[in-house]
Amino acid sequence: MHINQVWAAYFSGTDTTKTIVTAIAQEIAQALGVPCAELNFTPPQAREQHYTFAPTDLVICGTPVIAGRVPNVLLPFLTQGLTGSHALAVPVVLFGNRNYDDALMELREILETDGLRTVAGGAFVGEHSFSTILGAGRPDGSDLDKASAFAQAIAEKVTQLDSLPTEPVAVNGCLPLRPYYTPRDRHGKPINILKVKPKTRDTCTHCGLCAQVCPMGSIDTNDVTHYTGICIKCCACVKKCPVGAKYYDDEGYLYHQHELEELYQRRAEPEVFL
Predict the structure, then answer these.
(1) Phi and psi (nearest 5°) for 111?
(2) Please, is 165 exposed, middle or buried when counting C-beta atoms within 10 Å of its C-beta (0-12, 13-18, 19+)?
(3) What span, in angstroms and rounded, lies between the C-alpha atoms of 105 and 122?
(4) 154: helix, coil or strand?
(5) How many other CB atoms are found less than 10 A from the CB of residue 262?
(6) Are 208 and 244 found together in one domain?
(7) How many CB atoms lie within 10 A of CB 120?
(8) What is the dihedral of CA 221, 81, 90, 116, to 10 degrees?
(9) How many domains does the chain fold into?
(10) Residue 257: inside a domain, yes or no?
(11) Residues 92 and 223 in one domain
(12) Could you tell me which residues come within 8 angstroms of residue 236 by beta carbon, excluding any fewer than 6 positions away?
């Protein structure tokens, strides 16, 4: 099939999903000799727009994994803000070294419902948003090498297609989708961190960067210690603060963080599907 443009479309609070999606998209574009464009739907204002792809587009669409699924705050945009026009698509999810559970299957189903036709799918690993230990420094060189090989395989597959795929790409995951992953304490009781928000140290310089990078637009630009909306624990404000002024001190949150760091020390590897 003939492709006129490749899209790198992503939501990425701490830039790990962006790194993988753009690497894949750019390499495919280079292999096919076509332009590569970006659709960054991380900022809240970007998710207020509607985007229509052309039938000759190839869309690499990536999201992080939260609780084993596509972040539920993205569902209104992903299900209503994209028109596929039978463009080809590659769902990509980025997980923090635990597991991606049903996230890739979920994203595949969303893109197919949007009118895109999936030809490949991938689950890659990035440093966990909660931690600097879990998946530290990832995606790393090995991950990017695998993303490169994946991109080359996608380019080759697309050039060999004579018509649109009649079936979605086969990926790991369950249908119907399983419930969101629920962290539990040492007694087996669910840990609810939905309403937990970062605190702000006195070292804060009030530069306002945290408010700029919050993908939910939930940090007050006039008083960055105040929250005007929900927190999805993407930790963009924590990891991007130049003086380390944002932090979590909630007991349940910290228990869950440390438990993940202890249980998932092994190196999880990317999984790709063609």
Answers:
(1) -65, -40
(2) middle
(3) 10
(4) helix
(5) 10
(6) yes
(7) 24
(8) -170
(9) 2
(10) no
(11) no
(12) 13, 14, 210, 213, 214, 215
Write out the residue range of the structural domain in which residue 225 sits.
199-249
Residue 255 CA to residue 134 CA, distance in Å, equals: 14
| Residue 200 token pair | 């702000």
C-alpha 234, offset from chain centre: 10
What is the rounded CA–CA span in Å between residue 213 and residue 115? 30
Contacts of 264 (CB under 8 A, 6+ apart): 97, 98, 134
Instruction: Check whether residue 11 and residue 54 sit in a common domain.
Output: yes
- Unique residue bearing structure tokens 């900022």: 43
Residue 79: CATH number of its domain? 3.40.50.360
Give CA separation, 266 vs 60, 65, 103, 128, 185, in Å. Answer: 28, 18, 21, 13, 21
- pTM confidence score: 0.96
Give the ranges where 65-183 is alpha helix by DSSP (H).
75-80, 103-113, 141-160
Residues 136 and 210 in one domain: no
Q: What is the pLDDT along the chain (274 residues), one digit of tens a residue?
A: 999 999 999 999 999 999 999 999 999 999 999 999 999 999 999 999 999 999 999 999 999 999 999 999 999 999 999 999 999 999 999 999 999 999 999 999 999 999 999 999 999 999 999 999 999 999 999 999 999 999 999 999 999 999 999 999 999 999 999 999 988 888 888 999 999 999 999 999 999 999 999 999 999 999 999 999 999 999 999 999 999 999 999 999 999 999 999 999 999 999 999 9
Residues 147 and 232 placed together within one structural domain of the fold: no
Same domain, 135 and 41: yes
Q: Is 257 helix (H, G, I), strand (E, B) or coil?
A: helix
